[in-house]
Design a protein that fits this description.
Elements lengths: L5 H13 L9 H7 L7 H13 L3 E6 L2 E6 L3 H13 L5 H11 L2 H14 L35
Length: 154
């Protein structure tokens, strides 16, 4: 997954914060207005959105002469993919996972346990459909495809 520059990240934050999953998306003007404190030209925002579309980070749909943009994946899916990409940087993936698991807070460890238990099909708090129910979602890249080398079923 391609890392985002500062401006790309700011634009994605607008999309993630403003565009609900059921929305038709937002126009370049709406994104530019949401970034009002940055004093950006309309064409700059348009270029950033075009590049994000080329990277598969946003989906766009024609509406008259304008485009409407929405995120291709949720913020959480993007962050999870970044974490998976970091594991692929080299060295021991297992060692990196163990190091990560030892560095999280107790609450974060509980969230991980619940997600792993739910993924394994275990019964208990993770399978009750409460706050942890969304943790069972598979992590797909911004294009909806799994990363190369990852099987469809884990």
């Amino acid at each position: 997954m391609t890392r985002l520059g500062d401006l790309e990240r700011a634009v994605m934050d607008v999309l993630w914060d403003v565009v609900p999953g059921t929305s038709d998306g937002v126009t370049v003007r709406e994104v530019a207005d949401a970034l009002e404190g940055r004093e950006l030209a309309y064409t700059t925002v348009m270029t950033v959105l075009d590049r994000l579309a080329g990277k598969g980070m946003v989906q766009r749909e024609r509406e008259g002469r304008a485009w409407r943009y929405r995120p291709a994946a949720s913020r959480e899916a993007h962050i999870a993919q970044l974490m998976l990409d970091a594991l692929d940087l080299g060295g021991s993936r297992d060692a990196a996972l163990v190091r990560f698991a030892r560095s999280v807070t107790g609450t974060e460890a509980e969230v991980l346990r619940a997600a792993l238990g739910s993924e394994a099909g275990l019964t208990g708090p993770a399978s009750t459909g409460g706050a942890d129910a969304e943790l069972t979602d598979r992590v797909d890249g911004p294009t909806g495809r799994r990363p190369a080398g990852e099987a469809a079923e884990r």
